[in-house]
Amino acid sequence: MFRRKSIITVLAASMILSSGVVYAQTNGAPNAQSDTAFDNKVIKKINVENMYHTIKYLSAVPREAGTEGEVRGVEYIESQFKSLGLETKRIPFPIYDYKTNRELAKVDGVDLNGHAFSGSGSGNVTAEIVNVGKALAGTVPDNVAGKIALVERGDITFVEKVKNVVAKGAVGVLMYNSGPNGNNFGQANGEIPAVAITQEQGKALVDKLKNGPVTATLDVKIEKIEKTSYVVEAKLKPNKNKDTGQIVTIGAHHDSVHLGPGANDDASGVSAVLELARIFVNTPIDTEVRFLTFGSEERGMVGSSYYVVQLPKSDINRMVAHFQMDMIGGAEAGENHPLGGLIMYTIDGQKNLVTDLGASAGSRMYDVALPYGQLGRSDHQPFHDVGIPSALFIHSPVEPQYHQPTDTIEHISKEKLQQAASIVGASAYQIARPDTPALDRAHVAPATVNYDFENRPVD
Ligand code: BES
Ligand code: ZN
Questions:
Q1: Contact status, residue 244 vs residue 20, Cβ threshold 8 Å
Q2: What's the pLDDT at 23?
Q3: For residues 432 and 424, what is the distance between their CA atoms, to the nearest angstrom?
Q4: In Å, what is the CA distance from 424 to each residue of 3, 41, 69, 84, 334?
Q5: Cβ(298) to ligand 1 under 6 A?
Q6: pLDDT at res. 118
């Protein structure tokens, strides 16, 4: 299955791609009128009051991943999809919290008041210390076997450092800071106890070791608590007689930060996903459209990563575009930029099919060729990672309420919701609408526009 790249450079009146799919002229006005007619099939039906109602319901309770608040949100989303007759699935996946119950590090009987790394292994070990420097791959000495590795922070991740000393048989890690800023600096997964100490303490140990063996005791008890988070997937299948075999995905994340109402982040995106689902259900299409809401985005895109990894390869090969909406209603976002600061971010900072379609739609509807920029930080990342053209639609710079208890419905702009949903809806429809009769088995690309890269600060 082919994957569409940027269509902005297509200049011929029409051209046949290697796949045999025909793109009509994309650089001029001739299509503009019909594109607008197609746009209207979607955007005229958007009811921003529905979106507002969704945000109101979802933001009434925090939706942190793994909490009852998430489940309440998921149940709502699921019931909406089901009421539209969509093939709806709740996909559970595990997430982990770590609770530190003991984090003792003692040298020669003196407590160092260290901090266990979150994700450290549990255990009680007493052994000699071996200085292994920064524990870079290939530099860890063999004599650390059965001993506690004294590691300096820096250059590689904590996780890699722990892995490198574990590979040599170390039974514990004492890691000292690379600067004067304390001893509580992070996350390191591993099976052995790993405790962070200050730079001063670490340097003193390095010196002490020059005079003879030093023995330490590490006693760490970390409780791993498993919780469940969800992805909600709703499939809209195309007309059986007109099926391109392609899939377009439209997504948002339904989780919020701890105790956050998350009205804009990202109940706003979910509201657009639901509203577009409502409209597409009654619109003939030749492409499968999947409506997705992800849990645990705020933990590092855990839900979207899980979703993409569990997909059959044959599905991934059929996916031609992922539209991610995150924070699309912030009244105070975007400063004085056009269209309230709406921008499309890609992971690699390159244009793709999604940004081409978004820029064109913005230009047709609002006379603004949406700019694009480079940013991750949302669920378009895992889709990009497997080669699916993807972009994040967001207003930038973000509003002052971002990740605050004040991210409430009062700061939501209906106009911004309407604009973002219209642009994404019309763009997705350009792919999903059935072929025009004039061009058999063809996708008529929208008239493309010039649109610019912007290096706009996001927060
Ligand atoms: N909606 C934000 C993403 C965002 C925030 C993009 C501000 C641009 C500006 C998202 O929900 C978020 O907060 N993501 C996390 C990702 C992290 C957990 C990997 C972030 O950016 O801190
Ligand atoms: Zn978000």
A1: no
A2: 39
A3: 12
A4: 19, 13, 28, 20, 18
A5: yes
A6: 83
∠ CA 250-254-259 to the nearest 5 degrees? 160
- Cα 448 to middle of ligand 2, angstroms: 29
Distance 347 CA to ligand 2 centre (A): 15
Collect all residues with Cβ–Cβ distance below 8 Å to 328 and sequence separation of at least 6.
Answer: 264, 268, 269, 272, 342, 393, 394, 395, 416, 417, 420, 421
Distance 251 CA to ligand 2 centre (A): 11
Answer yes or no: are the C-beta atoms of 349 and 275 closer than 8 Å: no
The encoded tokens of residue 118 equal 């979150």
Q: Rounded distance, CA 407 to CA 413, Å?
A: 12
- 379 touches ligand 1 (CB under 6 Å): no
CA atoms within 13 A on the CB side of 238: 20
Give the burial class of 453: count Cβ atoms within 10 A of its Cβ; 0-12 exposed, 13-18 middle, 19 or more buried.
Answer: middle
Contact between 393 and 328 (Cβ < 8 Å):
yes
pTM for the predicted model, two decimal places: 0.85
Q: What is the CA radius of gyration of the chain?
A: 26
H-only helix segments in 156-301? 158-167, 199-209, 268-280
CA of 119 to the centre of ligand 1 (A): 22
Alpha-carbon distance of 190 to 214, in angstroms, equals: 24
User: Tokens 């031609």 identify what position?
Assistant: 320
- Cα separation, 344 vs 107, whole angstroms: 53
187, 372, 377, 379, best to mutate for ligand 1 pocket (most atoms within 8 Å of CB): 377
Contact (Cβ atoms closer than 8 angstroms) between residue 38 and residue 21: no
pLDDT of residue 435: 62
Are 190 and 171 a contacting pair, CB within 8 Å?
no
Query: Which residue ranges of the chain lie beneath pLDDT 50?
Result: 1-2, 4-30, 436-443
CA–CA separation, 304 vs 307, rounded Å?
5
DSSP class of residue 327?
S
